[in-house]
From TrEMBL:
Similarity-based family: In the C-terminal section; belongs to the class-I pyridoxal-phosphate-dependent aminotransferase family.
PROSITE patterns recorded: HTH_GNTR
SMART domains per the UniProt record, alphabetical: HTH_GNTR (SM00345)
Name of protein: PLP-dependent aminotransferase family protein
Recorded superkingdom: Bacteria
Pfam families attached to this UniProt entry: Aminotran_1_2, GntR
Species: Clostridium oceanicum
Xref: CDD domains: AAT_like, WHTH_GntR
Keyword field contains DNA-binding: yes
Length: 467
């Protein structure tokens, strides 16, 4: 049962009545169905941020009205009789608003409505076509198609050859693979989804550095987790952390080895930590420190990575590295969703890793992205030094730039869209009243970048001076 609602403490209606009305409405509309189990009273109290006595009152009233039943073991369920009685209220249109993953954000809607007018897109988190290794990919796909004889689902945890190769990479990063295992997933986003649903109870807190990766926020919200901004404090016990220590999305920050050691010493021993490391290989000047999972306390880290950022987003092949018990649990959950990640795609990735072409490809991507990074720094230093604050990214796809005049990011986003430029406002990443925008230089060649910043200069002048 996913609950993404809280009673309103600012209105006169008693809290327990609001909770009763909420559950009745959800049952009548078909969101909660017959025999669906309610969370425990303690968990409901945490989810609703109320006293347990308030939940007891609400559940007693729901029982009295016939919407809830209990069994001898103490479980509480939606009444089958009540659900059947009310299901005639459910129409086909009712189902359009069901489900846990929803994008109600007005920003997305605005982008969809105006995308046909976009001339330069600085929003995409993927490589542009010129950086995809198309010729080598065609060659490798041809080799795989000639060699492959197994078109079944394959091994539940992933192709054994690919798992072996990834384990070697993990060992090189200082991770003890005697105590850990690998699960191949359909991209890092699926990995986060599995962890959020399978490892963290609804209503629990997950700490992350805000602003944070937009899809992670959507997933955690859908899983009914309480997202809180992370800052070092005296408390060391939380339910979970979500960390992007290497070329953070969207800020591009890089956690130093000393900071990683401090973090793991303080939080690693007693908390579940999800480490998102998808940009690790895209460094420009020097390799980043080893993952959090390689430090003391790493047994509590669930490490997530992907080949989407370095090969092709369309392959949808990523992996989770975690203790064997965790991998076993996540594998069971994954098998209920998609049986296995596409075997042919796994074979394609393995063929890349076995050849010298993979390293050549990454070196080429680094070289080209570094050129674009330096080009943008030159443009910002020349034309925007009085308009934006920024730091030069050491890796990844993005610049994170902040208005010196605190012009709202949503205003920049909307005006830029009118001019045919698409940028991502900081609000998409959970930063309230943001004055920062994220610029992707991975998705645009140099001429597009120059053209995009010309538009951005007009946008900022129009917002600052009304020009």
């Amino acid at each position: 049962m996913i609950i993404n609602w809280k009673p309103d403490k600012s209105i006169e209606t008693p809290l327990y009545i609001q909770i009763v009305d909420y559950f009745i409405n959800m049952i009548k509309k078909g969101y909660f169905v017959a025999k669906e189990r309610f969370p425990s009273q303690r968990n409901l109290a945490e989810i609703f941020s109320v006293n347990r006595s308030t939940v007891v009152l609400a559940m007693d009233e729901l029982k009295a009205q016939g919407f809830v039943i209990t069994n001898g073991k103490g479980g509480t369920y939606v009444s089958k009789h009540c659900w059947i009685k009310n299901r005639e209220n459910i129409t086909l249109n009712s189902f359009l608003s069901l489900g846990i993953l929803k994008r109600k954000n007005k920003i997305y809607k605005k982008i969809e409505e105006n995308y046909s007018k976009v001339k330069v897109d600085f929003s995409k988190g993927e490589l542009d076509e010129s950086l995809y290794p198309n010729n080598t990919m065609k060659k490798i796909i041809a080799e795989v198609s000639f060699e492959i004889s197994d078109l079944s689902y394959g091994n539940k945890n992933g192709d054994k050859g690919l798992i072996k190769k990834i384990k070697e990479e993990m060992i090189d990063l200082g991770i003890d693979m005697e105590q850990n295992d690998i699960l191949i997933v359909s991209g890092a986003t699926q990995g986060l989804f599995l962890v959020a649903l399978g490892m963290i109870s609804q209503g629990n807190i997950i700490k992350t550095r805000m602003p944070s990766y937009m899809k992670s926020l959507e997933i955690f919200n859908a899983a009914g987790l309480k997202i809180e901004d992370f800052s070092y404090d005296k408390k060391t016990l939380y339910n979970a952390f979500y960390m992007i220590p290497t070329f953070h999305n969207p800020t591009t920050n890089l956690m130093s080895s000393l900071d990683r050691e401090f973090f793991m010493n303080k939080y690693g021993r007693h908390n579940l930590i999800i480490e998102d490391d998808v940009f690790r290989d895209l460094w420009y000047d020097s390799e980043p420190p080893n993952p959090l999972k390689s430090y003391v306390g790493g047994e509590n880290v669930i490490y997530v990575n992907s080949f989407s950022k370095t090969l092709a987003t369309g392959l949808r092949v990523g992996w989770i590295c975690a203790s064997s018990d965790i991998i076993k649990k996540l594998s069971e959950i994954k098998s209920q969703i998609d049986s296995s990640t596409a075997l042919i795609n796994q074979k394609i990735v393995l063929k890349w890793l076995e050849s010298s072409e993979y390293v050549k490809n990454i070196n080429n991507i680094r070289k080209e992205l570094k050129k674009r990074r330096d080009l943008i720094d030159d443009i910002l230093s020349r034309d925007f030094k009085d308009i934006f604050l920024w730091s030069i990214p050491k890796g990844g796809y993005y610049y994170w730039i902040k208005s010196k005049d605190n012009i709202k990011a949503l205003d920049i986003f909307e005006r830029a869209l009118e001019y045919g430029l698409l940028v991502n406002p900081g609000d998409l990443y959970g930063e309230k009243e943001s004055s920062s925008i994220r610029i992707s230089f991975a998705s645009c060649e140099e001429e597009k970048i120059k053209g995009g910043f010309k538009i951005l200069k007009k946008v900022m002048n129009s917002l600052k001076y009304g020009l």
